[in-house]
């Protein structure tokens, strides 16, 4: 299951979704002492999200209950960029100052275990996360040359702050892609996380119009056909490569703490 939330503060459109730094300074008297970057205390909202994920995600063989999904969505809907050390004043979010040639996606991992992961993806303007799936959440694997008929669930422009999006194993647009309109950040809660060893590696797809490759499998009216497409699994696209960076936001998640929390994406 995947939960994703836009983390950029401006009201202008941030990303088009198609589904089928940190420094603290402590000052004492006249002497200035720099503290470790990202050493600020973890926010209550992030701590509650972490604790709730520990309670909700119990491994690949256990699906979260609807009420647990609602808990997580409610928490995520109320999180702010500052809860993970972000601010609209960061150079990355200033469109006028953005380096137009830089369109590579960057990601940072807040926390990861065998049951779930918390990550942030940074998309410069025009950057794309290609059409891909979330392994362990779709029906059995396909061979790379097999065509698969898919129905378009959503083709939307999201503006931060916005409600959490939830992708279920076989519903909600598990196969999807992002295209950034302005620089934006996406908080990603994934349970279980990617794992090549456990057969949950990411797969990528090319899409073809339904009318382009009709094989008689399904007869559709013209208007209805616009909501369907053929998907073909492909090799890893060049624009799917990402750069990983160290998480420098609030530190100190308390593993043993007990609390009731909510989550959002």
Automatic annotation (TrEMBL):
Q: Which GO terms describe its biological process?
A: detection of hypoxia
Co-factor requirement? Fe(2+)
Keyword Transport (UniProt): no
Q: What class of enzyme is it?
A: oxidoreductase
Catalytically driven reaction(s): L-cysteine + O2 = 3-sulfino-L-alanine + H(+)
Q: Which PANTHER family does this chain map to?
A: 2-AMINOETHANETHIOL DIOXYGENASE, CYSTEINE DIOXYGENASE
The name on file for this protein is cysteine dioxygenase
Q: Which organism is it from?
A: Salix koriyanagi
């Amino acid at each position: 299951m995947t939960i994703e939330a836009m983390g950029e503060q401006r009201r202008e459109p941030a990303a088009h979704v198609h589904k089928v730094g940190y420094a603290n300074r402590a000052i004492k008297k006249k002497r200035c002492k720099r503290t470790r970057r990202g050493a600020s205390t973890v926010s209550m909202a992030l701590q509650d999200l972490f604790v709730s994920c520990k309670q909700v995600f119990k491994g690949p063989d256990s699906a979260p209950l609807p009420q647990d999904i609602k808990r997580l969505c409610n928490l995520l809907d109320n999180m702010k960029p500052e809860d993970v050390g972000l601010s609209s004043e960061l150079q990355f979010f200033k469109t006028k100052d953005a380096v137009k040639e830089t369109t590579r996606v960057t990601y940072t991992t807040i926390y990861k275990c065998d049951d779930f992961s918390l990550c942030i993806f940074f998309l410069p303007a025009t950057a794309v996360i290609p059409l891909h799936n979330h392994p362990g959440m779709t029906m059995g694997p396909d061979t790379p040359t097999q065509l698969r008929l898919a129905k378009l669930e959503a083709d939307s422009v999201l503006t931060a702050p916005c409600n959490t999006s939830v992708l279920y194993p076989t519903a909600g647009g598990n196969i999807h892609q992002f295209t950034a309109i302005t620089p934006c950040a996406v908080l990603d809660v994934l349970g279980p996380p990617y794992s090549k060893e456990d057969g949950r590696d990411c797969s990528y797809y090319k899409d073809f119009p339904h009318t382009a490759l009709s094989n008689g499998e399904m007869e559709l009216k013209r208007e209805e056909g616009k909501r369907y497409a053929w998907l073909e699994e492909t090799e890893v696209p060049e624009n799917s490569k990402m750069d990983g960076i160290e998480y420098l936001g609030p530190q100190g998640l308390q593993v043993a703490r007990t609390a009731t929390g909510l989550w959002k994406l």
